[in-house]
Amino acid sequence: MLGILRSMATTARVAFRKPVTIQYPEVHREIPNRDRAFPILIWDEEHDEPFCTGCHACERACPVECMTVVMKDNPKHATGESKRRKIIDEFWIDYGRCMRCNICVEVCNFEAIGMNNTWAGHELSRYDRSKLVFDLDELLAQSRAGKVDPGLRA
Amino acid sequence: MVLEQHDPALEVIDMPINMGPQHPSTHGVFRMVLVVDGERIVDVVPHIGYMHRGGEKLMETMDYRQGIGYADRTEYLAQFSAELCYCMAVERLMDIEVPERAQYIRVILTELNRLSSHFMFMGAFGIDAGIFGTSFTYAFAQREYLQELFEEVSGDRLMYAYFRVGGLAWEVTDNFVERCHEVLKHTQQGIRDLDELMTRNEIFMARCQNIGAFSAEQAVAYGLSGPMLRASGVPWDLRKDEPYSIYNRLNFEIPVGNYGDVYDRYLVRLAEMKQSVSIVEQALGQLPPEGPIVPEKMPRRLRTPPGEVYARVESPRGEWGVYLVSKGGDKPYRLHMRSPSFCNLSALKAMTIGQFLADAVVILGSIDIVLCDVDR
Amino acid sequence: MLLSAPSVDISQPFFSALLALFAITLLMTVAVAYATWYERKIVARMQYRLGPTRTGPFGLLQPFADMLKLLVKEDLRPATADPVTFELAVFMIFVPAFLAFVAVPFTADWLISPLPLSLLFLVAVSGLSFIGFLMAGWGSDSKYALLGGMRAAAQLISYEIPLLLAVIGLVMVTGSADVYQIILFQDKVPLIVWQPLGFLIFLTASVAEVERPPFDIPTGESEVAGGVFIEYSGIRWSMFQLTSYVNMYVFALLGAFVFLGGWEWPFGLDVGWGYQLLLTVLKMSLFIVFYLWVRASFPRMRPDQLMSYAWKVLIPFALLQIFLNGLVIVYDLPDVFLLITSVGGALLLGWLAFAVVRRGEARRPLRMIATGQGAAARSAI
Fold it and tell me: Which helix (H) or strand (E) holds B305?
């Protein structure tokens, strides 16, 4: 007899605790600094170009082959504005395939790619799966707008 | 009108019932065809393979850093155990020694992961027994605290990919020890809640006692491992019997049951949770405050010498093992994951035949399977 | 006719009865719709979460959202389902539940029909619903539905008996089978004091009659898939759910009236209908909160355990209660003996019902092994 009374006492006790529900989307939970949402490219403010030179290191290292990288000769190198001989021409990441393993960030020699650790990296719903393939401008957009957290390269 | 003895319109057959791939019981895509005679189960045919993704073949195309993410996804409730085992296998082949601080952090995270996996079991088991959802929400509230901690350390809430061959990917956060203590307080409250809710409840006991009982001989014959083996009375735990990592420096006990029924398995897992809390606290006390997390002479590209190795760990479900065959190179030639859920599930038929229909759900819940692990 | 709202002309008995029936049905439909709301809220708080919060303030418009959704759903019917039994099953469950309200006295003046045997009427009419479950189970032409229907019928019939026997104990003590008279009997002390064993039996049996957890085999089990209602969709399915709540109200009201003193105790008959209604609602709410509490806390019982509980535990104890009442009445013992014997019986019930779980020797506890045994363990087996 006592056992079931114990269960009832537990539920009654919990009923008077404050629930831990967060009312998303009005309130967003704080994301830790190291959070690994999807990868984005970083913009180099000094030279006004992406850090990425299109070296294919991340493309080769990716376990699920979700990236396509095309490099080109850097026009800014000819004019002497930048030290990068090659620069990224086209870059696609299929967010539908990406498994957020962080390997692309680890192998990048130029610290040109990082995992988005803001809410913008999580709120990426689309109605069509093909729209989950992000191209160079979309990947650079957040960094160009300055909304990048310094902890990105942890 | 007298009814004939063999009137075909009155043929009595055992009724086949399909518990289809879509279960409300949160175990994943698993299909059981039960043949019942009234309320007694006469035969069980389990159908698996709905989640087969060719995992072992895929691993042959991934090098030893890429494969860690896949090991996570195979055992998705005890990810750190899977990562640990995979890394241990490669480290054994390459003869790499993991620095002490990395070992301690690995053990702390693995035991916290054991806690979160057992919380999941408690929640899902309560639902299988029929509690409307109370155990589930209590358990998941606790898992949430653990997942937040893991997110702070590794960056992801479920698929951590944090261990690397030789140690860890990067250092833990500065407030790791304090955060662990905070989380453990919540965890202990959660264990108390679930204990009070379920263990001494007479209806729960009537549902679980003497159901699906397995003797020690049967358990060993079927190749069971983990809490199912210990509940049947066999005191075998890889952390004690073949200590790996730094488990030989920690003081803990392993709970062993007597009857091998569903209730004993539940009690064993509950006791293991309490032991895990104690292990984490000890390890946090012994954690070296600073030190390297990868060995100094870490090769840049991980190439294993030719050879084969079998490494196993005590995951929350049983013995999770990796059998690795390498022919040189940076990818395995053949990788087999010894899955505890698959081996434990093979005993389902023997446990369920002769029980009532309502017990089939409870027995399946007590085996605590992870379908991605069964099917790989 | 006794509906004494002064602004309505009630000279015609047939017309006023019709009006009263209409009012009750409408009222109970709204009450039941909001029962879903407060059930979700209260059970959610017990489960450490919030209930509906977004549809309207505090989720108060949730029942309307649910109703709207269910109304626009496609009305499915399996091709091989028996049309007559399938369609009629819903009504066979729905109508008896509402019919019970004919005999329920909400306050001293508010009732539809004063029946001299209203207690018997209430229990009998709410017992008609098992035919509906059988019809739904058979007519759906589905194995799960059939199983659920069989179990439902077995459960409902089995738990009628202890319910009725517990209530007959009351009839013996008060000398009347009319709910109204039983309430009037309780002007000093509620009947729960004299009949605690009967109260416990009534409580358990009523949870089983309403088919709520832990006795929800027909509606929750069948492999956790919905049971009898598996082939119904849309508004038909919602009628089943609402009927479950109407039944809950009927039994809560019955319990509040016959055991807790209804609208008479403790203030007596002199207060106005407002206080009486408040007392009725409060006492009914106690029962309802108990039902919700039990839902959130207990696992489901297995069908065979359920049956053995009814036949081997509840019925003998209900008969014991009647026997004890008989002893006290025949030998004209003072009333306090009723209390003593009944409390003794209740304690015995409490001990026995759960001692059966621990039959035989006490279970050996887990052993805690501190050192590994290595190869010794492997070779020992």
Answer: none
CA gap C64, A2 in Å, rounded: 40
**C186: closest CA of chain A, how far (Å):** 29
CB distance B240–C224 less than 8 Å? no
Establish if C360 touches chain B: CB-CB under 8 angstroms.
no
Chain C, residues 47-106, CB within 8 A of chain B, namely: 47-49
Residue B1 is predicted with a pLDDT of 46
Query: What are the pLDDT digits (tens) for C148-201?
Result: 888 888 888 999 999 999 888 888 888 888 888 888 888 778 888 888 888 889
Q: CA-CA distance, B215 to B230, in Å (whole number)?
A: 11
Does the structure's ipTM exceed the value 0.90?
A: no
Nearest to C213 among B19, B132, B235 (CB): B132
Whether residue C367 lies within 8 A of chain B, CB to CB, comes out as yes
Tokens linked to C264: 């008479």
- Find the CB nearest C299 among B204, B220, B357: B204
* Number of DSSP helices (H) and strands (E) in chain C, helices first: 16, 1
Question: What residues of C are in contact with residue B253 (Cβ under 8 Å)?
Answer: 368-370
Helix (H) or strand (E) holding A43: strand A43-44
Strand A133-134 to strand B163-164: parallel, antiparallel, or no bridges (unpaired)?
unpaired
DSSP A95-108: TTT----SHHHHH-
Chains in contact with chain C (at least 3 beta-carbon pairs closer than 8 A):
A, B
Interface contact flag, C367 B255, Cβ < 8 Å: yes
Percentage, residues of chain B above pLDDT 70: 96
The residue that leads in pLDDT, C228 or B344, is: B344
Q: How far apart are CA C268 and CA C107, in angstroms?
A: 12
Contact B81, B293 (CB under 8 A): no
| 3-state DSSP assignment of residue B322 | strand
> In this complex, is the C-beta atom of C376 within 8 Å of any C-beta atom belonging to chain B?
no
Q: Yes or no: say if C126 and C247 are a contact pair by the CB < 8 Å rule.
A: yes
User: Residue B106: pLDDT band by 50, 70, 90 thresholds?
Assistant: very high
**Cα angle for residues C40, C45, C50 (degrees, 5° grid):** 70
Chain A: residue whose CA lies nearest to C290: A8
DSSP state of C188: S
What's the rounded Cα separation, in Å, for the pair B222 and B238? Answer: 18
Collapse the DSSP code of B340 into the 3-class scheme (helix H, G, I; strand E, B; otherwise coil) and give the result.
helix
